[in-house]
Amino acid sequence: MSSPTEPAHELPRPWRLERSERGEHLTVGRVRFDHVENPRTGEVLRRTVLEMRDWVNVVALTPENRLVVVRQFRFGVGRVIVEIPGGVIDVGEAPIDAARRELREECGYTSDAWVSLGAVEPNPAFQDNLCHHFLARDATRTHGQELDEGEDIVVEELELADVRDRIRSGELRHALVLTALQRVLDLRTPQQE
User: Fold this and answer.
1) Residues 100, 135: one domain?
2) pLDDT tens digit string along 22-67?
3) C-alpha 13: how far from its chain's center?
4) Which domain holds residue 161?
């Protein structure tokens, strides 16, 4: 509530879509250019949207309560990073089925105890997709990896205390991984302890 000396602020209004143009189809999705009217100024601006399929991330915990992680090279940052298993949901595939598939294909692990942790918007500034988070309890290695031609993944298990240390050190800092882990682990920062 605003004080008597502060002007009242109304909520931002949606921007009216004037028209859209289809852009190039990329490996990760398709570009769309929306021409939208700023409700404050009336000016029509061109904005870029990446149309992308939804994704899944899996927080997989073994019976010993160790976290299953993957190491893989990421082109955006140009280095190998630590992540949790995950990937793109295939057309017509349910998010839970994609989570089961990604854990099995990337890591060779399976689980019979799944919990949905909800979904997040990876970057709503210019992406239109969701990332669905899942918890797989009692995950065990049941077979080998089934990597596709675009993957080169090493699988590890980490003690949960080690996960917290890697987050604090900045080694583990993939935003979508952190949001999934936050829903399962108590990830207080050192300043909060």
Assistant:
1) yes
2) 999 988 899 999 999 999 999 999 999 999 999 999 999 999 999 9
3) 27
4) 55-185
* Statement to judge: residues 106 and 82 lie in one domain: yes
3-state secondary structure of 22: strand
Is residue 193 one of the residues assigned to a domain?
no
Q: Two tokens at 28? A: 């990760």
Dist. CA 105–CA 178, nearest whole Å: 22
H-only helix segments in the chain: 95-107, 160-169, 175-182
Q: Is residue 20 part of a domain?
A: yes
- DSSP assignment of 58-101: EEEB-TT-PEEEEEEEETTTTEEEEE-SEEEPPTT--HHHHHHH
6 lies in a domain? Answer: no
Give SS3 for 54.
coil
Distance CA 28, CA 127 (A): 11
The region, left, alpha or beta by phi > 0 then psi within -120 to 50, assigned to residue 101 is: alpha
CB 127 within 8 A of CB 121: yes
d(CA 56, CA 169): 25
Answer yes or no: do 102 and 181 share one domain: yes
Same domain, 122 and 152: yes
Which pTM value belongs to this model? 0.88
Cβ neighbours around 107 below 10 Å, total:
27
